[in-house]
Amino acid sequence: MDEAITTLRDEALVALDACGDIDGLEAFRIKYLGRNGAVSGLMRSLPGLAPEARPAFGRDANKLKQEIEAAFTARRENLAVNAAADRGGVDITIPGRCLPGGHSHPVSQVSLEICDTFAAMGFDIAEGPDVETDFYNFEALNIPSHHPARDMHDTFYVSDSTLLRTHTSPMQIRAMEARRPPLRMIAPGKVYRCDSDVTHTPMFHQVEGFLVDEDVSFADLKGVLSLFIARVFSVDTAIRFRPSYFPFTEPSAEVDIACVICGGKGCRVCKHTGWIEILGAGMIDPEVFRSVGYDPEEVSGFAFGIGAERIAMLKYGIDDIRLFYENDHRFLSQF
Ligand code: FA5
């Protein structure tokens, strides 16, 4: 190879390596690859060579041109990528990031499962407002002002007569006002109480259920709730009906499930009782029927209010209800 070609080759490759930016690269292109550049200069020197030396010189000069052009293109791409990265810009050569698909919240999944279970038993679904009047949340449910039972609900008041509903039971009144018996309904939704510990959150979900017809008995209530628990958990789930008090049901009961966290031995979640309360229930009080214009001599009925978070805790073995609302993706993505 002619010495002029190898000298130019070495010089050009060193100069290309030294190009630190796009401007330097453009100067390189003009100097070596431009119309009046060094490589074209080699070509132009061809006529001055001895005729027998021209073919080899022409071939080598062409090879050099291709080599410098390829090196130039590679260097330009490399500089462009680095410049984008330095600017914090977009490097289009890096593969895109996949966004993981979302799914519904575990408490929403459980609420839906509860609704599906009752829908399969013929219950209609209704929804009502989160901001409720004192009348529907308390008065019509036989909890007049100054009734001590108001203390059972740590209420968030919006004004003197409106509040964030403390339970889904107001839906009993709204539905009974709008329809006549026989009625079989469930009403899922958010409820609010100033309450927070391992089994209580200030916002939680209930599913209200009620059935009004002729000759409805406590045995019907037990039958429906036992079927519900067998479907959502299993037929051999240990449950107990515990006498309780609600102003809008008489008699009243609370239903507990054997604590799945400790297997009934006693832990902080079940407050060392071995049981976790999942719902309140009872036979609808005659006063409630009177407040919606139903005759308690003609109809009877039962009602219940299920805590959806409690069901989710038991189903999934969660030992702190507050985990549902910390929005920790590592926790939520497990469901
Ligand atoms: C009631 O709210 C009644 N309205 C239920 C009812 C309906 C009784 C119809 C009779 C007839 P209670 O306050 O016990 O009852 O709440 C019902 C369920 O909601 C509880 O069993 C529990 O599972 C859940 N719960 C109550 N407070 C909280 C809370 N702060 N956080 C999470 N779940 C709660």
Short description:
This protein is of the alpha+beta class. It has helices at residues 3-18, 22-33, 38-44, 54-86, 106-119, 134-137, 170-178, 218-232, 286-291, 308-316, 329-332, and strands spanning 124-125, 131-133, 162-164, 183-192, 203-213, 239-246, 249-258, 275-284, 300-307. Strands 1-4-5-9-8-7-6 form a seven-stranded mixed β-sheet, sandwiched between helices. A two-stranded antiparallel sheet has the order 2-3.
List keywords for this structure.
11 helices, 335 residues, binds adenosine-5'-[phenylalaninyl-phosphate], 7-stranded mixed β-sheet, BirA Bifunctional Protein, domain 2, two-stranded antiparallel ribbon, alpha+beta, rod-shaped
Q: Largest beta sheet, briefly? A: 7 strands, mixed
Question: Strand tally, please?
Answer: 9
Spatial order of strands in the largest sheet: 1-4-5-9-8-7-6
- Structural class based on helices, strands and sheet pairing: alpha+beta
Report the total helices. 11
* Stretches with pLDDT under 50, minimum 5 residues: none
CATH class of the largest domain: Alpha Beta
Beginning-to-end CA distance, first to last residue = 71 Å
At the fourth level of CATH, the homologous superfamily of the largest domain is: Bira Bifunctional Protein, Domain 2
Please compute the radius of gyration using only Cα atoms: 39 Å
